[in-house]
C-alpha cells in the first residue's frame, strides 16, 4: 500500500496527529486516527462528534452513516467536503448540523481542502479552540498505510 511521508501526519496545529476514537474504530484506515493518505479520495481528515442533525444531513446527500452503525455522540473521521457542506448549510454557529471538531485529531490536510483554521475553531469542541493539545504530543507522527484496513463507505 502506498504511503505519504510521515511528516504529513500532523494536526491543524502542525503537531503530531492525536488518536481520535477506537470505539467506534474510526479513520479511513480504521486505526483510530483521522489521517489521510493517497488512497483516501474523500479526505477523511475532520475529527468530529456526530449529531442527529449531521447524520440526517449526510444521509440526505447519499451517505447514510447510520447504515454502518453510527449514531449521535460517536466520534468519527469525516470527509472534509461533507463537513464543509454542513458548515455552509448551518443557520448559525450553534447549528447542530455541524459536528464539533477536535482540532488535535484533525489532519492538517483539511486546511488544503476548502476549510480554514477560522472555520474549524468556530466549531471546535471545548477546550479545543484554545490549544489543540493531544495525547500524542511529542510522539512521532503516524504514517498512512502502517496499521488497519481501508474503510469502505460511500461519499
Basic shape: globular
The structural class is alpha+beta
Give, in order, the helices and strands.
EHEHEH
Provide a count of the helices: 3
Biggest beta-sheet profile = 3 strands, antiparallel
CA radius of gyration is 14 Å
pLDDT averaged residue by residue? 83
For the largest beta sheet, what order do the strands appear in spatially?
A: 2-1-3
Number of strands: 3
Helix content: 10-25%
Report how far apart the termini are. 22 Å
How large a portion of the residues is in β-strands, by DSSP E?
5-15%
Catalogue the unreliable spans.
1-7, 132-155
Question: Characteristics of this structure?
Answer:
single chain, 155 residues, disordered N terminus, three-stranded antiparallel sheet, alpha+beta, globular, disordered C terminus
Topology of helices and strands:
Blueprint: E1 46-49, H1 52-60, E2 75-78, H2 80-89, E3 100-101, H3 117-122
Textual characterization of the structure:
This protein has 155 residues and is of the alpha+beta class. It has helices at residues 52-60, 80-89, 117-122, and strands spanning 46-49, 75-78, 100-101. A three-stranded antiparallel sheet has the order 2-1-3. The longest helix has 10 residues, at 80-89. 39% of the residues are buried. Residues 1-7 and 132-155 have low confidence and may be disordered.
Amino acid at each position: 500500500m502506498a504511503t505519504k511521508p510521515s511528516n504529513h501526519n500532523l494536526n491543524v496545529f502542525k503537531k503530531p496527529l492525536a488518536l481520535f476514537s477506537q470505539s467506534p474504530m474510526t479513520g479511513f484506515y480504521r486505526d483510530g486516527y483521522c489521517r489521510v493518505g493517497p488512497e483516501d479520495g474523500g479526505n477523511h481528515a475532520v475529527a468530529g462528534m456526530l449529531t442527529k442533525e449531521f447524520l440526517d444531513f449526510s444521509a440526505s446527500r447519499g451517505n447514510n452513516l447510520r447504515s454502518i452503525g453510527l449514531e449521535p455522540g460517536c466520534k468519527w473521521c469525516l470527509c472534509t467536503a461533507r463537513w464543509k457542506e454542513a458548515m455552509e448549510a448551518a443557520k448559525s454557529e450553534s447549528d447542530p448540523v455541524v459536528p464539533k471538531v477536535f482540532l488535535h485529531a484533525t489532519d492538517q490536510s483539511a486546511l488544503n481542502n476548502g476549510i480554514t483554521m477560522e472555520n474549524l475553531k468556530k466549531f471546535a469542541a471545548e477546550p479545543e479552540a484554545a490549544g489543540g493539545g493531544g495525547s500524542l504530543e511529542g510522539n512521532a507522527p503516524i504514517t498512512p498505510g502502517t496499521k488497519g484496513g481501508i474503510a469502505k463507505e460511500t461519499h
